[in-house]
Amino acid sequence: MKLFDSYLISSVAAHSWLACSDYGEKNAAHYDHSKCRGWPRKAAQYAPIGSTFGGDTGYDTRPQSGTTPCASKRSSDDYSGGHHMAVYFPGQQVVLAHPMKNHGTGPCTNKFIPDNGNWILQATQTQPGDNDPTLGEFKQNEVVNLGISPFGFQVPDEEITKYPKPGFQNAPAFCEDTDKALGTYSFNVPNDFATGEYTFVWLWAFNGAQDYYSTCFEVEVVADAAARQAKLAARGQNDFSLPCDTGLTSTGEIGSTIGCDTSGSNTGGGSTGNGSDDNSDNDVVPTEDPDFDPATMGSVYTNQMTGKIYLPTSSVQPSKREIHVVFYADCADVARPNFWYARLDFKSNNDGNILHRFRRSDGGSSHAIHYVLQQDDADDIRRGYVGFHWAFEGGCRLLQVPAKVHVEDTI
Fold first, then answer.
1. What does the domain layout of the chain look like in residue ranges?
2. Model's pTM, two decimal places?
3. CA pair distance 154, 151, nearest whole angstrom
4. Residue 234 above 80 pLDDT?
5. Mean pLDDT of all residues in the chain?
6. Which of 109, 174, 207, 357 has its CA 20 to 30 A from that of 137?
7. Measured between alpha carbons, how far is 176 from 92 in angstroms, rounded to an integer?
């Protein structure tokens, strides 16, 4: 009877989707927004930067052979608000990220949660306004088979709890939060994959061979790692890292290290803050170079930035942290600030409705915007940093006018 109940629950609750189409850490335990460099279609609506990873937004799609596997029709705003399509190159090792949504085996569930197949499919990129191919048409062009996670009576208990593993259930921190735990796949882009623009499909078979869930994501395949780096840099991204790890991928292949000599290995991008040895140069402001005529000097403007604000350490863990982030001059024109592992403070009326978020316009001779964040969750405080994604109207000279951060602790 217990076995029947387990299958019944998984059948009713079954759903998932792809959240990141170019994640920066292979076999990761916890999702970090700053490590995503490529997103699925309509991510700004369904899986936005800074939102709760795995939060239900109606993104899960259940296709049939004659229907489209895409949650929405292609439109011109599919990739907006800092959510970009992925850029791959032949031979690149790629990591994909998805929420588990309770569909994993382990000591917190049982060994009978099924996984019946995982694939990446492709077709020529669908243009805005056009209809996507059907699932049956996509299935004629398989990119990779991502394997199947072991489950069932015949599988030893020690194999159930062993990571990494192929298929959907590669989630080493699954039992910490079975609903919103991170699952990842990894695969090598085939060496002979032609450059061009594609629509890819992630396809997962859950309870049976045709019990499908899917997500569509657009990909541009360029010639090599240098071309990928140039594409990412041109749109304001500065994390070009690759998972330079020869451990087995989801397909059973040795992980590719092609391009690792160009991209570096897992170097994050764009952090600012204080209190960390890794960020000791953050307060250095470049001065004029006497070897150059100022009239010949150019300017560097940042349009988008993703990273971490490292917070000062405390000998006693605070019960609450109030974090103040101040932008100056043109950097004060923040168009879309997102923070995670902390929440924007707010004021509410007597009915509990939020009146406004704490975004203060500071007076004085220097134009400034001041954000107030609150950390009152013990896990977030122990983490020691706040994640962020910022976009600036017209660009920001962050090297000349760096943001300032200070923290007020309550013990």
1. 2-263, 277-410
2. 0.65
3. 8
4. yes
5. 82
6. 207
7. 31
